[in-house]
Amino acid sequence: MLIGVPKEIKNHEYRVGMVPSGVRSMVEAGHKVLIETKAGLGIGITDAEYKEAGAEIADKRETVFSRAEMVIKVKEPQKEEIGLLQEGQILYTYLHLAPDPEQTKGLLDRKVVGVAYETIQLPDNSLPLLTPMSEIAGRMSIQCGARSLEKESGGRGVLLGGVPGVEQGHVVIIGCGIVGRNAAKIALGMGADVTILDINLGQLRYIDDLFGGRIKTLHSNPYVLAQQLRGADLVIGAVLVAGAKAPKLITRAMLKDMKEGSVLVDVAVDQGGCAETTKATTHSDPTYVVDGVIHYCVANMPGAVARTSTYALTNATLPYALRIANQGIKAAVAADPSLAKGVNVHRGVVTHPAVAESLGLPYTPLAKAAA
């Protein structure tokens, strides 16, 4: 199979879909890899390193899209890229289609096979290709929130860890999955007062055991959430429903009771966000203010630590990419139900139920679509 890796063009996105070790693995398995020139420069990987690993270098992204049987990316295709996709081509990347009808329509019109990293799901319901970026985003959410709390950033001027004689900042984390746990770890390490909310009592028990009771755990409901938001200096939105839009847990009315200059970091922004006031921002313009609350809603947070993120991501994505390349998409998804859950669109139809429901589109089972 000929695999194409274009240079990412989303705002301040420096990650790349494959590193030289991945190229070497593909070539040794009998495949060809076409890398757009300078695709890896954002994380310090040169064209020469890719060529040494066995890749061919393309001068233009149009060449990559026109020749590749499978395109491997990091972020969803931008408008300029959607028009370059070929019918039947495999697109293997983060898609986040549920809150994005325009992209979904583009992929359906182009009749590609869209395999989304974020919905590949193991039998234990874990999301192996989302996990590494969730770990990074969770950890980053606290440092980004702490920076936004500084007075020069428009925040309350609160140091999360406080100092002797001065109370700590209060961090409220909504959701105790991968993002929430990693956010809690960093917040606790900075000395903050941390409360985590979730509807899953089993997860809350796990958090209590994991952190030895140093983090307060609360069963989440609208009343409890509203109470916690009133006292929060920093709120982390860490909720996820695989493939679907994030539930809008923080209402506009709740914001009005929050402290002036408090901060909301909505890590769920890729799936539409967990606040009614969430809208996607970029690394170049990361925040905006609603009712005195600073919103940090960057949709590709891990892109700020692009080298760490790329290597963490490709560790997880490469085995599935090899499986698709070795077996072909039809045989690969037939043999692996976890990979099958990653196929969101297939040659003009939606094949993931949560995506179809979120967008109000017809759902076609993958087995039927592939047949």
Major sheet characteristics: 8 strands, mixed
Domain module tally: 2
Uncertain regions spanning at least 5 consecutive residues: none
Structural class: alpha/beta
User: What's the total helix number?
Assistant: 15
CATH fold topology of the largest domain: Rossmann fold
Distance between the termini: 21 Å
**CATH class term of the largest domain:** Alpha Beta
Q: What share of the residues does DSSP label as strand, in percent?
A: 15-25%
Please trace the helix and strand order, writing H or E for each element.
EHEHEHEHEHEHEHEHEHEHEEEHHHEEHH
Give an account of the 3D structure.
The structure is a single chain. The chain has 371 residues and is α/β, with parallel strands linked by helices. 37% of the residues lie in helices and 16% in strands. It has 15 helices and 15 strands. The chain has helices at residues 20-28, 47-53, 61-67, 79-82, 101-110, 131-149, 178-189, 201-210, 222-231, 252-255, 306-327, 329-335, 337-340, 353-359, 366-370, and strands spanning 2-5, 32-36, 56-58, 70-72, 90-93, 113-116, 170-174, 193-198, 216-219, 234-237, 263-266, 287-290, 293-296, 343-346, 349-350. The strands form two sheets. The chain has an eight-stranded mixed beta sheet with strand order 3-2-1-4-5-6-14-15, sandwiched between helices. Strands 9-8-7-10-11-13-12 form a seven-stranded mixed beta sheet, with helices on both faces. It starts with a strand and ends with a helix.
